[in-house]
Amino acid sequence: MSTNVKIIEPDSKSAEQIGFDLPGESESRQGDCCCFGLWKPTEMTSTGYYGGVEGGATHSKMVLMNEKGDILAWTDGPSTNQWLIGQEECLKRVNNMVEEAKTKAGLVSGTKLASLGLSMSGADQKEAQDQLISGMKSKYPQCSQNVYIASDTAGAIATATEKGGIVLIAGTGSNCMLITPSGESYRCGGWGHLLGDEGSAYWITQKAIKIVFDHEDNLKVSPYDIMFVKEAMMKYFKISERDELLHYFYSKFEKSFIAGLCKELAQGAKDKQDKLCLDLFRQAGEILAEHILGVEPKITEELLNTPSGLQVVTVGSVWKSWDIMKDGFVKVLQDRKRNPRISKISLLDLKESAAVGAASLGARSIKHNLPINYSQNAAVYFKAEF
Questions:
Q1: DSSP letter at 153?
Q2: For 302-319, b where at least 16 C-beta lie within 10 A, e where not — what string?
Q3: CB distance 80 to 94 below 8 Å
Q4: Closest to 333 in 3D by CA, of 300, 301, 299, 291
Q5: How far is the CA of 88 from the CAs of 82, 130, 133, 181, 368, in angstroms?
Q6: For position 202, what pLDDT does the model report?
Q7: Torsion sign, CA atoms 198, 200, 204, 209
Q8: Which residues contact 315 (CB under 8 A, 6 or more apart)?
Q9: For residue 155, which of 377, 304, 359, 367 has the smallest C-alpha distance?
Q10: DSSP secondary structure string, 345-362?
Q11: Which of 102, 235, 241, 313 has the fewest Cβ atoms surrounding its Cβ within 10 A?
Q12: What contacts 341, CB < 8 A, 6 or more positions away?
């Protein structure tokens, strides 16, 4: 790694908290953001209860809050990605989490939420959002008076800051979204396992399995020994022959289950120092950094010139393996030909579920500003200057 890169990694016990202000920010900003809710705080005072759901491809989480921003209850649920489980099942699971939260909070039966904000994996397109909103209102009218839906990236940003920034998701799937201070949104990736998901757990797993298949077919010989990955693959899927794996990829495809092998590959990289596993995570670091470069032309100077530089909220289980992704990630960004503008970057870890941001977005959609303590919701775990 080049000595021109200055890396500062805060101690985990004193991780830098965020919640920055941008120079020249106007308190009277007008306009809405297509996926980030209303920017301008409203003077309307609202009473009632507000819900937020962080809907993932593997698991989901729901928060119930009152008008003061106090958390009344949390509930957990399975995948709520409509493209993986179907719209009807998605709505059913969301409603189940909401009703469970109401029960935990001791609300009277039949109590409707003032708003329900859904930050959902697989809900980037407006048509899909409109269908989900219509479905919630028709099938579960007792759930909430108002329903607001945004992508999974929007909830993460709204949890960390009011000002915008980048969220980079690398969980079962992957996605990158830039939200500018004026509320415009720009995306790179997030096209699902057939067209995208680069750097995700599924992507790492699929690449590992493909390398084993290609090596044994003598189609493309791996430069690294494949035995650890092959044995981990056989053990995880409980198979003895390669062709038995086709069942999991075709007739009984379950994306989150396949992605689960990534955890075993991460352990192989960290504990066994397996060269193939290490290379897979290095590649993941590279391609995730390339997502940031994908939205770089639209990054405003305000976001680049914060005290911590460009702030990137990282979400998803793949980031738990940051130590073996870091070199690939930094290598891409230190290339000044590819990255002429980003001179300082900070990666942030959410300390609170993106369900909180989803609840905030839902409340903003009905002109209520939920008090959110942004400084406690995320912390810097990595800094670099190029």
A1: H
A2: bbbebebbbbbbbbbbbb
A3: yes
A4: 291
A5: 8, 14, 12, 35, 29
A6: 97
A7: negative
A8: 152, 156, 167, 168, 169, 170, 171, 350, 354
A9: 359
A10: EEEEEESS-THHHHHHHH
A11: 241
A12: 296, 299, 304
What is d(CA 386, CA 373) in angstroms, rounded to the nearest whole number? 31
Cα–Cα distance measured from residue 120 to residue 349, given in angstroms and rounded to the nearest whole number: 19
Which amino acid does the sequence have at 124? D
Collapse the DSSP code of 319 into the 3-class scheme (helix H, G, I; strand E, B; otherwise coil) and give the result: helix
* Residue 86 · residue 131 · CB < 8 Å: no
What is the per-residue pLDDT for 23? 29
- CA separation for the pair 288, 198 (Å, rounded): 7
- The burial class, CB within 10 Å (0-12 / 13-18 / 19+), for 68 is exposed
Helix (H, G, I), strand (E, B) or coil at 9: coil
Are the C-beta atoms of residues 348 and 314 closer than 8 Å to each other? Answer: yes
Instruction: Determine the Cα–Cα distance for residues 352 and 18; give it in Å rounded to an integer.
Output: 13
Pairing mode, strands 147-151 and 115-120: parallel
CA distance 53 to 70: 16
Per-residue model confidence as pLDDT tens digits over 36-91: 433 333 333 345 899 999 998 888 999 999 999 999 999 999 999 888 899 899 99
Q: Cα–Cα–Cα angle for 148, 194, 335, nearest 5°? A: 90
pLDDT for position 122: 76
d(CA 296, CA 80): 30
Q: Which residues contact 103 (CB under 8 A, 6 or more apart)?
A: none
Ranges under pLDDT 70 in the chain: 1-4, 8-47
Hey, what amino acid is at 132?
L
Q: Provide φ and ψ at 132, rounded to 5°.
A: -65, -40
d(CA 293, CA 61): 30
DSSP state of 144: B
Angle at 203 between CA 197 and CA 208, to 5 degrees: 170
* C-alpha–C-alpha distance, residues 380 and 29, integer Å: 27
